[in-house]
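User: Design a sequence. Structure:
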C-alpha cells in the first residue's frame, strides 16, 4: 500500500502548501483520491509529481468542509463516496474573528451533481479490502466539540455527522479531520471489523486545541488498539503530536508533508 500526500498544510518544494488535505491511496491495484484539499494545491501538486488527475478512478470525501472538498469542481466526474449532509451550509466562529463559511464551495456542490455519488450510511466495503465507516457513533465521551455551526449566527451546533474514515483490510485507518474523535473511530472500526488489527493511522487528528484529558484519552486509545505507526497530518496539532511522541515511545510517529510518499 502506498499513500502519496498530495495536499497538506505543509509541503516540500516545488509542491505548494494549503490548509487542507488530499491523499492518493494506492491499494491492491486501485487508485483512490481521499479528499481533495481546498482547491489551490491539488492540481499543481499532482502536476509537480507527474500524476495525472485522471489517474485515480474513485474519490472518497471524508466530510464536506471546504479544505477537504474544495477541488472537486476541478476534477472530471467519476465515482464519489460521501456521507449525506456533506453539502450542508456551515460556519466556524472563533472569538474575535469574523464568522467563516467553511462549507463545500457552491461550485463543487454543483459539480458533484455530474459525479456518480454513493451515499455511505453504514460501514461499507467499496472495493475488495477497502471499507468506509459511514457516520461514526460518538459513544466514548471523547470531547469532539468545536466552534462549528449550521448558522452564521452561531446558535445551532454542527455535529459534522457527515464524517467518515477509510479502513483497509491490512489495518490502515485513514481520516480527514477526525471530528468524530480518534477514540470513537478506532472503537467503531474494531466493533464492526474485529478481525482487522489497526496497526497504522494516517490523517488529521483535530487535536489542535485539545486539553490534557483528551490527549491522555487519545494516547490510551492508540496504545489499547496497538497502533504501531501514526502519520499525523493537517489539523493534528504540533503540540499534540509532541505529547503523543512522549506518551507512546514504541509508536512510530511522523508528520509527512505534501510530496511525501508513505508505504505500508
Ligand atoms: Fe480539515
Ligand atoms: Fe474539518
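Assistant: Done.
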Amino acid at each position: 500500500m502506498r499513500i502519496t500526500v498530495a495536499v497538506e498544510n505543509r509541503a516540500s518544494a516545488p509542491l505548494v502548501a494549503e490548509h487542507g488535505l488530499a491523499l492518493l491511496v494506492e491499494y491492491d491495484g486501485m487508485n483512490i483520491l481521499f479528499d481533495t484539499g481546498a482547491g489551490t494545491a491539488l492540481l499543481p501538486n499532482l502536476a509537480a509529481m507527474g500524476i495525472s488527475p485522471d489517474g485515480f478512478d474513485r474519490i472518497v470525501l471524508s466530510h464536506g468542509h471546504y479544505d477537504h472538498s474544495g477541488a472537486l469542481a476541478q476534477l472530471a466526474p467519476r465515482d464519489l463516496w460521501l456521507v449525506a449532509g456533506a453539502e450542508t451550509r456551515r460556519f466556524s466562529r472563533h472569538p474575535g474573528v469574523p464568522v467563516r463559511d467553511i462549507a463545500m464551495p457552491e461550485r463543487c456542490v454543483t459539480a458533484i451533481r455530474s459525479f456518480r455519488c454513493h451515499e455511505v450510511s453504514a460501514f461499507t466495503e467499496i472495493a475488495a479490502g477497502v471499507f468506509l465507516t459511514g457516520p461514526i457513533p460518538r459513544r466514548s465521551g471523547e470531547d469532539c466539540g468545536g466552534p462549528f455551526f449550521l448558522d452564521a449566527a452561531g446558535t445551532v451546533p454542527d455535529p459534522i455527522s457527515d464524517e467518515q474514515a477509510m479502513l483497509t483490510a491490512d489495518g490502515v485507518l485513514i481520516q480527514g479531520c477526525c471530528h468524530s474523535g480518534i477514540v470513537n473511530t478506532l472503537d467503531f472500526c474494531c466493533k464492526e471489523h474485529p478481525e482487522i488489527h489497526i496497526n497504522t493511522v494516517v490523517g488529521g487528528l483535530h487535536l489542535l486545541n485539545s486539553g490534557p484529558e483528551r490527549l491522555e484519552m487519545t494516547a490510551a486509545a492508540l496504545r489499547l488498539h496497538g497502533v504501531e505507526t501514526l502519520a499525523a497530518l493537517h489539523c493534528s496539532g504540533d503540540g499534540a503530536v509532541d505529547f503523543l511522541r512522549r506518551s507512546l515511545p514504541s509508536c512510530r510517529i511522523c508528520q509527512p508533508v505534501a510530496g511525501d510518499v508513505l508505504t505500508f
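The chain has one domain: 2-263. The radius of gyration is 17 Å.
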